[in-house]
């Protein structure tokens, strides 16, 4: 009896000690978790001036920048591409204009104003955000030179307030030829938008290009910057006061660059004009009735030459995050920032709202035509937003019941860049000239025809079908990209996958510039 009583007493004390240990453990765990959470919610340090250089991305940036030189039209200055020469010197002559500059759109010899203006806007944005990082690897001046080659064309293409030339060349006739641009002898007709034939999206995109570029040149050529800003204001008024889609009013342009709407371009242009001028009326434009009509707040979209909403949301988020004048308590701006967060949450692979539009290898994949446009554009926006968060000391991004850091966005941006540069199932780079394995049969006329070949319009097609790799390297070209099943057919006839575009180059230059090194974001462009 006594032994049993002792045994029960011992067991009771043992249970008390176990319970006490569990309680103490729970208290310690709770305190530690609170301390860790507090530590975890502390913003990461703001980066200083450009730090150490990442050789992979700097090397890729130097290569990507060269495709702008490959695509230049006109009388070339300080030509760096041995197989290129002067071309299209009489472009614009039928209207007594000099439209010889600008850049060819892709592997053809067309000058399409809509995507060319987008190229200029994105390149301007990249320079404004990452100019210090470009300069750290000697790429700022080449970027400015390439931008000016486009804006010189755009200035000349806008001879009066309500007239804008939006296309040089006839795409049907152009695509019946396969020849070097230096040898072109075909007629190069002009297409314009005006008050009778409005084209809001192309006029507004050109306004965005001019406004953003004016900020780039403000400190290096104030007279040129003022000229660009004057054209931007006029073009925006023209676009807004004469609303109409260029795809509907000029149906033949829809075959190549069909616009799905002009509201996004109006908001995009007004946003850039606000950054360039500080004029509150432009801010009121994007946050007021036009914002309600066109912004699609809360509905994430893909950033592209056709749809600028995601870009606009990120661009305007910098006003909220950096506490710009007029941003405090502005519900419209808050809607843009929340929409930008929705875009970011869709991109992060571990987010509850992560998009399923990806390959098995992790590449964002939206379209089989020019499939790399969307992942590269998305990664560029993610890098920007990550840097905005770091510089504004915003510690977390909330996606549903999950929290993410700026470093998570940067990790996503790197994953897309790395895929492009060779970290993919094919172990090949989609950036021509980078790495040991990249496309050899790029769909590009100038690259495919030997410099000493004599060809006319149609007999050059022998080079399109030639089994021999391109004799000239279209260095820096970002080809269309892989299919959803991560296959790629390296064939000159495969324009869906093997054709590069100039606007893709602006996007990859922006992305690579963001990854070259780290530095704090510029809080104001002025």
Tags for this entry?
526 residues; mainly alpha; 5 strands; 3% strand; disordered N terminus; cellulase activity; signal; Glyco_hydro_9; EC 3.2.1.4; Glyco_hydro_9_His_AS
Give an account of the 3D structure.
This protein is mainly alpha-helical. The protein has 21 helices and five strands. It has a three-stranded antiparallel beta sheet. A two-stranded antiparallel sheet has the order 4-5. A hairpin with a 2-residue loop joins β4 and β5. Mean pLDDT is 93; it is low at 1-6 and 33-39. It is an enzyme of class 3 (hydrolase).
N/C terminus separation? 91 Å
Helix segment count? 21
General shape: globular
> Into which percentage range does the β-strand content fall?
under 5%
In order across it, which strands form the biggest sheet? 1-2-3
Overall pLDDT score: 93
- Strand count, sense and closure of the main sheet? 3 strands, antiparallel
What is the strand tally?
A: 5
**Which structural class should the secondary elements be placed in?**
mainly alpha
């Amino acid at each position: 009896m006594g032994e049993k009583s002792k045994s029960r007493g011992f067991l009771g004390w043992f249970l008390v000690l176990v319970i006490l240990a569990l309680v103490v453990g729970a208290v310690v765990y709770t305190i530690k978790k609170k301390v860790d959470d507090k530590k975890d919610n502390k913003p990461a340090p703001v980066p200083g001036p450009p730090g150490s250089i990442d050789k992979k991305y700097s090397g890729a940036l130097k290569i990507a920048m060269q495709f702008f030189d490959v695509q230049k039209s006109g009388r070339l200055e300080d030509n760096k591409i041995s197989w290129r020469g002067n071309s299209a010197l009489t472009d614009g002559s039928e209207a007594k204009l000099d439209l010889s500059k600008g850049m060819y759109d892709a592997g053809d010899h067309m000058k399409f104003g809509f995507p060319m203006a987008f190229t200029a806007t994105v390149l301007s944005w990249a320079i404004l955000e990452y100019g210090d990082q470009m300069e750290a690897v000697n790429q700022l001046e080449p970027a400015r030179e390439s931008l000016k080659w486009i804006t010189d064309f755009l200035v000349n293409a806008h001879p009066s307030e309500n007239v804008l030339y939006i296309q040089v060349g006839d795409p049907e006739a152009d695509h019946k030829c396969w020849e070097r641009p230096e040898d072109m002898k075909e007629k190069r007709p002009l297409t314009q938008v005006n008050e009778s034939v409005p084209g809001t999206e192309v006029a507004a995109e050109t306004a965005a290009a001019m406004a953003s570029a004016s900020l780039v040149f403000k400190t290096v050529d104030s007279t040129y910057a003022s000229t660009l800003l004057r054209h931007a204001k006029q073009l925006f008024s023209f676009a807004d006061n004469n609303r109409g889609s260029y795809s509907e009013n000029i149906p033949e342009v829809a075959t190549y660059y069909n616009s799905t709407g002009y509201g996004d371009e109006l908001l995009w242009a007004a946003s850039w004009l606000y950054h360039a001028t500080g004029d509150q009326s432009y801010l009121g434009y994007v946050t007021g009735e036009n914002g309600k009509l066109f912004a699609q707040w809360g509905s994430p979209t893909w950033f592209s030459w056709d749809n600028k909403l995601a870009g606009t949301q990120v661009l305007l988020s910098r006003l909220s995050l950096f506490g710009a004048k007029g941003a405090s308590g502005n519900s419209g701006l808050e809607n843009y920032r929340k929409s930008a967060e929705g875009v970011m949450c869709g991109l992060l692979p571990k987010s509850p709202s992560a998009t399923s539009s990806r390959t098995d290898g992790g590449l964002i994949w939206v379209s089989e035509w020019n499939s790399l446009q969307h992942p590269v554009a998305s990664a560029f926006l993610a890098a920007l937003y990550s840097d905005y968060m770091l510089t504004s000391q915003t510690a977390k991004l909330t996606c549903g019941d999950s929290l993410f850091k700026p470093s998570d966005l940067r990790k996503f941006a790197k994953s897309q860049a790395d895929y492009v540069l060779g970290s993919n199932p094919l172990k090949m780079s989609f950036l021509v000239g980078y790495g040991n394995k990249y496309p050899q049969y790029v769909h590009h006329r100038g690259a495919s025809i030997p410099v000493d070949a004599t060809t006319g319009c149609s007999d050059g097609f022998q080079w399109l079908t030639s089994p021999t790799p391109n004799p000239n390297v279209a260095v820096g070209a970002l080809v269309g990209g892989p299919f959803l099943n991560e296959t790629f057919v390296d064939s000159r006839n495969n324009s869906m996958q093997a054709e590069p575009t100039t606007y893709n180059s602006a996007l990859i230059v922006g992305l690579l510039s963001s990854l070259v090194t780290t530095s704090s974001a510029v809080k104001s462009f002025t």
